[in-house]
Specification:
The longest helix is centred in the middle third of the chain and has 29 residues, at 258-286. It is built from 21 helices and 19 strands. The strands form three sheets. Strands 1, 2, 3, 4, 5, 6, 7, 8 and 9 form a nine-stranded mixed sheet that branches. The chain has an eight-stranded parallel beta barrel with strand order 10-11-12-15-16-17-18-19. The chain has a two-stranded antiparallel ribbon with strand order 13-14. It has 655 residues and is of the alpha/beta class.
């Protein structure tokens, strides 16, 4: 062969009405294809019979028939295995090639010595039979040089800020696919092009983008005609795409690079919003107001997003020239829906409670503490049992060894891996600086209020943490158990820290500690929390701790006095929370496995479950496989046997 022959692969499922357009655009190339392989994915609309008749008059059109439906990835892989050309170009059955596409891409690939190349997309309005725009626009035209994995992920954030490069349709060097053994992931039915390009870039392959559009990408809904395309396209499963991206972030080739993991996490968040938007659009079409109410009840953050989407729906109808009557009916529906959903949001405030554990390992190991130096937490056991929160205590100096210096890359990677694993399981991570109100300055612990230098170093530290993890689904603790000052004094530091955190771009929940070891029993309507907290995002929660032994220390040198002690110690803070509207996080609690302690824990869980308007979450102490078996509050299994304290928590979560 000459090195420039191309096999065009067209996967087809129930495409009888339109696949002829795709095939003809392939046959009419100025650089004729070596072959056109159409893979019928077990269609049931007569596509296979139509293809056989069509191919009789076209000897270089080959028809492959799959015995059962496998999805687009499986169909493409079958075509790749059968291909004989130097290059493989994928064409979807409802799209088309401009006549010079192969000629331009083959020439461009040879000039750039590429293993895969792609061109811009030309958006095609099928109802108007016209090209109505392009995907990359000036951004694509301005991009030169080989595309790195970081470049590719930066342009795949699913944030509506430009076209996702994962929509591009690359042409691949066939020998490269054979050498690498890389194919489309057959367990992925949406976003398969994105995943294949990621795999090839991870393998070190060269990718360039041609700045002109020669791939005619059919719009589902024409921007010019304002009509559906009429071509068969399945609804994009954004939720499954999000799950696949979260799984990719755990890939050993990626998970040790915080930047790549962060970009994937941002993509997952964008896909989640697309999933929400699709849900809203479907609910509007079906008049499913009850579905929207249930959605808000399970996710109060969904409500403001939904309001914005509904506003856009009205504007689109005005722009499209809908009659006054139709717009009026839409407004009536939306008004009714908003009132119903707002009521549901009020009833479901702060539901559900996050239930989880403290996963130790990064918090101890200095001085005379008699445990191992440190261990990397692994929350897999707890996630498999359904926890929705994992609190990670860590020594401040372990994450930032030098005051005002950079964060330790290895610990950042470890935390990123934990966060990714948590999110993949649907859990939130709490990052908890375990400092007790102190900050290491030149190796010596300094009170963050009494030492100005320590306060400055602390603010730098918390800003760096927020900046590093701002794209992740975390809650950020400000300090564990400060105890030498009072809440009025500490609030000055916490407000400065919150301001720094928000400037860094972190907009998640901030956990503000109560002074005096965060003791929950200190707070009640009669003795309220005294700190005046100013958060521009109004997204902070007060963290308190409450153990069950007589002195509340959690050392359990003396047994639990009564089975209702946990509930009693939370009664005051519950009343205060309901009076002020400030939510509470029970960041540490727990007890041994003796019957009295277990009974007290269960009674306390019942009290917490009865107050979803109060409790943002609860984290049981102490998880982490490195705790000794005789540690009274150990949560990890011993010799494969689950600990009763964790079993009690698990039952509380399930009911």
């Amino acid at each position: 062969m000459s090195g420039n022959t191309v096999s065009i692969i067209i996967p087809a499922f129930n495409a009888k009405a339109f696949v002829g357009r795709a095939i003809n655009s392939a046959l009419e190339q100025s650089l004729p294809p070596f072959e056109v392989i159409v893979v019928d994915d077990c269609s049931n609309d007569g596509t296979r019979e139509w293809l056989r008749i069509f191919s009789d008059g076209h000897p270089n059109v080959k028809i492959l028939a799959l015995p059962q439906n496998g999805g687009p990835s499986a169909a493409r892989n079958v075509g790749i295995e059968a291909a004989q050309g130097d290059w493989v170009a994928i064409l979807d059955a409802d799209d088309a090639f401009a006549s010079d596409r192969l000629k331009n891409l083959v020439s461009f690939a040879q000039q750039t010595d590429s293993d895969l190349v792609a061109d811009d997309l030309a958006y095609y309005d099928a109802a108007a039979e016209a090209v109505v725009g392009r995907g990359l626009g000036e951004t694509g035209a301005a991009f030169t040089g080989a595309v790195t994995l970081k470049d590719f992920l930066v342009h795949n954030l699913a944030d509506d800020n430009g076209m996702d490069w994962g929509l591009l349709k690359p042409m691949f060097k066939r020998s490269m696919l054979l050498e690498q053994g890389i194919r489309y992931a057959e367990n992925i039915k949406h976003g398969e092009d994105f995943r294949l390009v990621v795999d090839l870039l991870l393998a070190g392959r060269r990718f360039h983008i041609f700045p002109e559009p020669f791939y005619l990408y059919t719009q589902r809904y024409g921007t010019q005609s304002r009509r559906p395309s009429g071509l068969t396209r399945t609804t994009i499963a954004y939720g499954k795409m999000k799950d696949a991206v979260n799984e990719l972030a755990l890939d050993p080739r990626i998970c040790h690079d915080p930047k790549l993991v962060q970009l994937l996490r941002l993509r997952a968040k964008g896909l989640s919003r697309h999933d929400d938007a699709q849900y809203i659009a479907t609910a509007l079409r079906n008049g499913d107001c009850l579905g929207l109410i249930k959605k808000v009840a399970n996710d109060t953050g969904f409500f403001p997003f939904m309001c914005a989407q509904l506003g856009r729906a009205i504007r689109r109808r005005l722009y499209a020239g809908y009659s006054f009557l139709r717009i009026f009916l839409v407004v009536i529906f939306i008004t009714f829906g908003l009132e119903s959903v707002a009521y549901a949001a009020t009833k479901a405030t702060h539901r559900p409670i996050y239930w989880g554990v403290n996963d130790s390992g990064l918090d101890f190991g200095h001085g005379d503490i008699p445990w191992k130096n440190f261990a990397i937490p692994n929350p897999s056991y707890y996630l498999a049992h359904g926890v929705t929160l994992v609190r990670i205590p860590f020594q401040i100096a372990r994450l930032q060894p030098t005051p005002d210096g950079p964060l330790a890359p290895a610990i950042v990677r470890d935390l990123q891996m934990i966060i990714t694993k948590d999110q993949a399981a649907g859990a939130i991570t709490v990052l908890d600086p375990h400092g007790y109100g102190f900050f290491d300055v030149d190796g010596q612990p300094q009170d963050i209020l009494k030492n100005c230098g320590a306060a400055s170093d602390y603010l730098n530290f918390i800003w760096q943490v927020a900046r590093t993890f701002k794209g992740d689904d975390i809650a950020l603790g400000l300090m564990n158990e400060p105890h030498t000052g009072n809440d009025v004094e500490y609030a000055k530091i916490w407000n400065a820290a919150i301001a720094a955190v928000r400037r860094a771009g972190f907009h998640g929940v901030v956990l503000v500690p109560h002074a005096h070891w965060e003791t929950a029993a200190d707070i009640s309507p009669a003795t309220p929390y005294q700190g005046q907290i100013n958060d521009p995002d109004k997204n902070w929660v007060l963290e308190v701790h409450s153990y069950l032994d007589p002195d509340g220390s959690g050392t359990y040198k003396q047994p639990v006095a009564s089975t209702d002690i946990g509930a009693k110690r939370l009664a005051g803070v519950i009343a205060w929370s309901r009076q002020t509207g400030i939510r509470v996080f029970l960041g540490e609690t727990g007890g041994p496995a003796d019957p009295a302690s277990l009974a007290a824990l269960k009674t306390m869980y019942t009290e917490i479950k009865s107050a979803p308007d109060v409790f943002w979450g609860i984290a049981l102490w102490g998880g982490g496989a490195w705790w000794k078996p005789n540690y009274p509050m150990r949560l990890d299994p011993i010799n494969g046997v689950d600990r009763p304290q964790f079993t009690a928590l698990e039952k509380a979560m399930d009911h």
